[in-house]
Design a protein that fits this description.
This protein is an alpha+beta fold. The protein is built from 10 helices and 15 strands. A 7-stranded mixed beta sheet has the order 1-2-6-7-5-4-3. Strands 8-9-10-11 form a 4-stranded antiparallel beta sheet. The protein has a 4-stranded mixed beta sheet with strand order 14-13-12-15, with helices on one face.
């Protein structure tokens, strides 16, 4: 029994662990560079050559703005109005050998306008400190960027004096650093947790609760194994078994057991799931109230037919258990437990009705 349950626990752990690995890898992939720069610090834009800009996270002091080449906006189709979300301007590279772009939120519009005026006047008295990520321009953005120079230069000259990159300015560097670091740590944590799940299932640690329940019942493991092997099996995968002494079930990847003589009340719950008002599925659960447990045990069933069969079996074999739900029973169990227990639990011998 224990070896088969250990293998079942390993198998159950694999699916979720693989999902955790995938999510963890994705989080690390999208955040590792940001987390790296959070630790090492952003690069100084003025000290990076144009050839080394790609993908860098940079701090920069903008003192020159040669004009706007792109405005991005969102349109509200209901009101037919639009809201500008960002602007793009032409600035020199850190070594001032080429021209490139800078994309910034609208909150920096006033500062960049002042820098544009200062650049036109030639005094360079205005500046603003920004941080962002160097990205390559897409084809559409590069068209607008290229068009900016067409009145002054030929195509060959434009290619010679520009690079197709822009700095994507962050609106809040600190929040970005916190987010990148958090995603990276969470990604690592999910991978480690997934590994630990498999390790714990492989070495039998997931059997701890089951063994504790067997010990609580005062039974030997061999006796429990005999009860497991002779138990009524209700699901194809054998995840739910009703024995004379124990009810065996899987809780995620953990094999569990309930001492049948301590069961007080069982009933069915049915939950209909909907997305945008459309039914997407129904789940069925066996609710089991156990003496000494504050909350009921909820065991998911593959379908309603199996759940009803289990309830009929419990009702026939365990006469001390109240089977079925009414609001009156719920109120009695919650408000007057002693009265509820007098219905069956305290009045009937906890002896299995044969034939089982």
């Amino acid at each position: 029994m224990f070896e088969s349950l250990r293998k079942k626990a390993v198998k159950s752990s694999l699916a979720l662990s693989i999902l955790l690995f995938v999510i963890g890898i994705v989080l690390i992939a999208v955040s590792w560079k940001g987390a790296y720069y959070t630790v090492t610090g952003y690069a100084d834009f003025s000290k990076i050559s144009a050839e080394d800009l790609k993908g860098q996270k940079v701090d920069l002091e903008v003192t020159q703005n040669y004009g706007y080449y792109l405005e991005r906006y969102e349109r509200n189709t209901k009101t037919n109005t639009r809201k500008t979300t960002s602007y793009s301007c032409v600035i020199p590279t850190g070594d001032e050998e080429y021209f490139m772009g800078i994309k910034f939120p609208t909150s920096y519009e006033d500062e960049m306008d002042k820098i544009l005026d200062s650049t036109i006047d030639g005094d360079l008295s205005e500046s603003v400190s920004l941080s962002g990520t160097v990205r390559k321009m897409g084809s559409e953005e590069y068209k607008y960027f290229h068009d900016f120079f067409e009145d002054y230069f030929t195509d060959d000259e434009i290619d010679a004096i520009t690079i197709p990159y822009y700095i994507d300015v962050t609106s809040n560097k600190l929040l970005d650093e916190i987010a990148f670091s958090a995603f990276f740590v969470i990604g690592i944590g999910l991978i480690v947790f997934g590994i630990l799940r498999i390790v714990n299932a492989s070495n039998g640690k997931t059997l701890k609760d089951l063994k504790n329940t067997i010990s609580e019942a005062g039974m030997s493991e061999s006796y429990a194994e005999s009860d497991f092997n002779s138990a009524a099996v209700f699901t194809k995968n054998g995840d739910f078994r009703l024995g004379r002494i124990f009810t065996f079930y899987m809780q995620g990847s953990k094999p569990q057991a309930i001492i049948n003589s301590k069961i007080q009340w069982v009933y069915q719950t049915t939950t209909t799931h909907r997305t945008n008002g459309i039914k997407t599925g129904t789940t069925y659960n066996l609710m089991v109230y156990v003496d000494g447990h504050k909350n009921p045990v909820s065991i998911m069933m593959p379908n309603e037919a199996i759940l009803l069969e289990i309830l009929r079996k419990i009702d026939a074999a365990f006469p001390w258990v109240v089977v079925g739900y009414t609001d009156e029973l719920k109120k009695m169990y919650t408000k007057n437990r002693a009265e509820f227990l007098e219905l069956r639990y305290n009045k009937v011998e906890h002896t299995v009705v044969e034939p089982f």
